[in-house]
Amino acid sequence: MDHERHLFMSLVAVLLGFGALMVHSASITSRPGETEQVFLSRHLVYVTVGVLAATAAGLMPGAWWRRLAPWLFVTTLGLLILVLVPGVGAKINGARRWFRFGGLSFQPSELAKITLPLYVCLVIDRRRGQLNSWVRGLVPPAIPAACLVPLVMLQPDLGTSLFLACAAGVALFSGGWPVRNFVLGAALALPAVGYVVLHRSYQMERIYGFIKTWSDWNAAPYHLKQSLLTLGGGGLWGVGLGKGSQKLSFLPEANTDFVFAVIGEELGLMGTLTVIGLWVGLYVLGLRMLGRIPRDSFAYNASFTLLTQLVFQVLLNVAVVTAMVPPKGIPHPLISYGGSNLVVSLVAIGVVLSLTRVDEVARPGEPAS
Has residue 369 been placed in a domain? Predict the structure, then answer.
């Protein structure tokens, strides 16, 4: 078990180190100067904060997360309400999603990627004997997502809203929520999502742009064109680290959402496959760490959910960069330029390490699990 944990943490360190290297490379512009150094310095600050927070989370007794889950969830709800208040939350490009503190910013919706799964897993754990009930098993486990996700949609941020809904779904599935409840939930949620998409022109433009990328290249959105050109320009082995040309003011968001495309250009197909291989290894090792935990415990469900949603975000980022899904701002965990997502991703890893310490996990029926 210790061997697997050490390998797991080693892969996290490799991804972090590689991310810092690629952030520096992807931050170079057509007019090289101090800009790339500023990005790297800020990124390293976020990495330091994230590692310290993850270390603190990893050293906490696993039982504490069960006790803290309700308080963390309520705090997140409060922050999501506050960020919508004019003058409190910063409004950028029509969206009110950030708290600004000088040159730093924080997205409370990123914090929800930890607090929502933890609280849903707690509710499931408390109601294991009632999950097959149409009332007691259906309504209470769905309440956390029903309260939190609409607040994120009001920012507006449809992509993160759907991501959080999927994270809650993973927690419910892992906890044993009946399939019939998922069917009913989807039947209620899909019309609402469809209404939001149809009544926001920019959402429809994203969908039309995604379709045009594969049907009419000349009409495809600029950033998707540049992303595919960047990926294709690297060939099998790439043009060389730091030698990519698309990042020189051609590829938008080169060091954040589209850093995977820069990897493709500079390190080629082999570079992108290596990154995916590292994530596959991280996920497999994480699942192996879960092997000694009772499957019907809060620790197992919470760890599985946090680990799975982290890898799911990787898949979404790769899918956006390769134009396999409609475009949405999805950073690549541990590799994209730092910020709230980087810190939250590292804390999520710390929580998984805390919950998967066998000596800290209570057996089924023990209240401190």
Answer: no
**Which domain, by its residues, includes 72?**
2-360
Please answer whether residues 125 and 368 qualify as being in contact, where contact means their C-beta atoms are separated by less than 8 angstroms. no
Number of domains in the chain: 1
Instruction: Establish if 368 belongs to a structural domain.
Output: no
Peptide bond into 156 cis (omega under 30): yes
User: pLDDT per residue over 87-124, tens digit each?
Assistant: 888 877 778 888 887 767 788 999 999 999 999 999 99
Q: Give dist(CA 107, CA 109) in Å, integer.
A: 5
pTM above 0.85, yes or no: yes
